[in-house]
Amino acid sequence: MLASPLSLLAVAVGGAAGSVARYLMLTMVMQWAGTRFPVGTIIVNVIGCTVMGVLSELAALAWSPSPELRAFLLVGVLGGFTTFSSFTLDIGLLVARDEFMAAAGYFLASTLLSVVGFFAGLWAVRSLVSVSL
Questions:
Q1: 79 a known binding residue?
Q2: Which residues, other chains included, contact 40 with Cβ-Cβ below 8 Å and sequence gap of 6+?
Q3: Which end of the chain, N or C, is surrounded by fewer C-beta atoms within 10 Å?
Q4: CA pair distance 48, 78, nearest whole angstrom
Q5: Residue 40: which of 48, 49, 30 has the closest Cα?
Q6: What is the chain's pLDDT, residue by residue, as a tens digit (133 residues)?
Q7: Cβ within 8 Å of residue 9, ≥6 positions away
């Protein structure tokens, strides 16, 4: 099944918005934390995965977004905001500087915290929905 032109436009616009948001977030975090360790990418991925968990669970339990809105938010905005291509680039840069422990710590922190963020988002929505029912 091919995507509709409207869904493709939604992904494109959402991806642009998410990418700009990621750039702004990374810039702010680098000003605060410096550039030696990719803290910004961890923060972006954890936030993005948490929001993905919230929106996924809302869509499953209490919200019926249109296919275009789902494409805009989940594929476009969050796909543009979180990026594992930046994640792999950051690891590559740490390895190139022979900072193997930092690379390993970054890999573990990014992976574990992003998965925890996703499930935290699911849990938050389930808790709120069960309270309101």
A1: yes
A2: 25, 26, 28, 29, 30, 33
A3: N
A4: 6
A5: 30
A6: 788 999 999 999 999 999 999 999 999 999 999 999 999 999 999 999 999 989 988 988 888 999 999 999 989 999 999 977 778 878 998 999 999 999 999 999 999 999 999 999 999 999 988 776 6
A7: none
Instruction: Report the predicted TM-score, pTM, of the whole model to 2 decimal places.
Output: 0.80
Instruction: Return the sign of the alpha-carbon dihedral for residues 22, 74, 108, 127.
Output: positive
Q: Which two tokens stand for residue 47?
A: 């936030």
Ramachandran angles phi, psi of 95, nearest 5°? -65, -40
Residue 97: Cβ within 10 Å count? 11
Whether the CB-CB separation of 25 and 41 falls below 8 Å is answered with no
Measure the CA–CA gap between 117 and 124, rounded to whole angstroms.
10
Answer yes or no: is 117 a known binding residue.
Answer: no
Residue 59 in contact with residue 71, Cβ under 8 Å?
Answer: no
Print the domain residue range for 37. Answer: 5-131
